[in-house]
Write a structure and sequence with these properties.
The structure holds two protein chains of two kinds. By secondary structure, chain A is α/β, with parallel strands linked by helices. Chain A contains ten helices and 14 strands. Chain B has helices spanning 2-41, 44-53, 65-82, 87-91, 97-130, 133-162, 166-183, 196-201, 203-219. Helices cover 80% and strands 0% of the residues of chain B. The chains are: A alpha/beta, B mainly alpha.
């Protein structure tokens, strides 16, 4: 299977600060890949590099086989891009937006665009600038879906959206991914939404990356809970990848099985009462692996 | 695809274009009324003396109108693009960046030029109604630096708006301000006419400078 996105030895510095050092990953065709990272870890910067809006300090980024900082119009035609903040032309109405983009994309599907617009129940002469954040996001979603791209890049699509609009995005993206040979590269700060969408996760933390299948991560990374009589200042090590404490209740995250965790806690002098494995959501796993702050 | 670009540009500037046309026509009417009232108040020989010997420029009041027009239309066209960095939408279109910029600038300059053409035509007709052909031509030639200031203002404003780095913004602002100030530094009829071809030729590097600003806008994280 060929890769739609390939990143090799990517380094980027901003104002002397290193954002990435030797970043390597690839996104295969037909996959739905979620890029996760805490605020300020460079998710949007990575999307900007992938779309040619930022030239990396060094390294190579290939998007559909072309260098990302010199994408040809033919490749841009195949990439649907949702900018952070649901950028849209606010001076246009729904009709004008459709007319504008229809002229730019020969394979434009008007029916797809208007199908999504009609769900809003707004007249087609309604200005985008007078819409709510959710309605504007729906216009942008309609635009990128009507382009019928091969690759979708969504930069924090969930920003400012309520549960209904987020669910709409998920529904539409599911249908898009189900068409086959369509690839989605998505960032979102609502991690639990991605759990319903992605098949691969890329964790971005302090300029380093970890790419893993969603199923594999949810199977191998584990959440344990126990009661602790005192403040448990746990060290992060090979066994304890992260922990949270609320009162006496401690949640501990590890790739190890429960016996190994129990032994490790005992070796640290911590009495873990009622240690047991707990159900873990992707958001739990994200916090367990990346930490809260 | 260029039709889509032109549609977008038209939607952005249409109301500003209407306002600019009203202001420009308003000043032309004012010049017409002023000349009529001068002619009715003073003896024709006196008016002739003012025009030919004292070099009184009767359409002097509209000298800053073209500059204001250029600046307004540049802001109308490009301010929505830099607001929230919306130009990223256009930069992602399946179209070469320079081609897209060319259409945007050609549209803006075309509109600015059309307004100035109307201004020049009405100035000529107004002056021709009361003065000999040579004076009417000279009046238009006198207004040409003002129109050039409008075009410089348009290109300068676009370059400044698209620049991402403040030092470059300030540099462009100063360069274009000096050039524009030079166009207003003389008095009398046709004082800058001999230098106009050279000043006009400078429009080409200014035009190219905007393309460079757009390139930096894209490469700089847009």
């Amino acid at each position: 299977m060929k890769n739609v996105i390939e990143v090799h030895n990517l380094c980027h510095r901003y104002n002397g600060r290193s954002i990435y050092e030797n970043l390597n990953f690839s996104v295969p065709e037909g996959s739905v890949c979620g890029l996760l990272g805490k605020n300020g870890q460079g998710k949007t910067t990575l999307v900007n590099i992938l779309m040619g809006f930022l030239k990396p300090t060094s390294g190579t980024c290939l998007v559909l086989g072309e260098n990302s900082h010199n994408l040809s119009p033919a490749v841009r035609h195949r990439v649907g891009l949702l900018h952070e903040g649901h950028l849209a032309y606010e001076f246009m109405t729904i009709t004008q937006t459709e007319k504008f983009f229809r002229g730019c994309y020969p394979g434009w599907k008007s029916e797809v665009f208007f199908h999504l617009m009609d769900k809003m129940g707004l007249p087609h002469n309604h200005r985008v600038g007078n819409m709510s954040c959710g309605q504007r996001s729906q216009v942008v979603l309609g635009v990128i879906m009507a382009q019928s791209p091969d690759l979708l890049i969504l930069d924090d699509y969930s920003m400012g959206l309520d549960a209904g609009y987020r669910r709409l995005f998920l529904d539409v993206l599911h249908d898009f991914a189900a068409q086959g040979n369509k690839t989605i590269f998505v960032t979102s700060h609502i991690v639990q939404d991605l759990e319903q969408l992605v098949d691969t996760i890329i964790f971005l933390d302090k300029g380093e990356i970890m790419q893993v299948g969603l199923d594999q991560f949810m199977r191998t990374f584990r959440k344990y809970v126990f009661q602790c009589e005192r403040d448990a200042s746990l060290p992060k090590d090979e066994v304890i990848r992260g922990f949270e404490q609320r009162g006496r209740q401690v949640a501990l995250y590890s790739y190890e099985d429960m016996e190994a965790v129990d032994r490790h806690l005992a070796s640290l002098g911590i009495q873990a009462h009622q240690l047991c494995r707990a159900p873990m959501s992707l958001e739990d796993g994200f916090i367990g692996l990346m930490g809260k702050y | 695809m260029w039709r889509s670009i032109l549609l977008k540009e038209w939607l952005k500037i249409r109301w500003f274009l209407a306002a600019a046309l009203i202001v420009n026509l308003g000043f032309i009417i004012k010049i017409f009324v002023d000349i009529r009232s001068i002619l009715s108040a003073e003896h024709a020989q006196m008016v002739w003396y003012q025009a030919v010997h004292l070099h009184t420029v009767f359409h002097h009041d509209m000298r800053y109108v073209p500059l204001l027009t250029g600046l307004t239309l540049a802001a109308a066209q490009f301010f929505p693009e830099i607001l929230g960095r919306r130009m990223r939408i256009a930069l992602h279109l399946p179209m070469a960046r320079d081609g897209m910029m060319f259409f945007c600038l050609a549209f803006g300059l075309g509109v600015v030029g059309a307004i100035f053409l109307v201004d020049a035509l009405f100035i000529h007709l107004t002056m021709r109604a009361y003065f000999p052909f040579e004076v009417a031509v000279s009046a238009v030639m006198t207004a040409l630096p003002w129109f050039l200031a409008g075009v410089w203002g348009y290109l300068g404003a676009v370059a400044v708006l698209l620049e991402t780095a403040w030092p470059r913004r300030v540099f462009f602002f100063l360069v274009f301000s000096v050039l524009i100030a030079m166009l207003y530094s003389g008095v009398g009829y046709g004082w800058l006419t001999p230098a106009l071809p050279w000043l006009g030729a400078l429009l080409l590097p200014a035009f190219l400078c905007v393309f460079e600003s757009a390139r930096r806008f894209q490469r700089g994280g847009a």
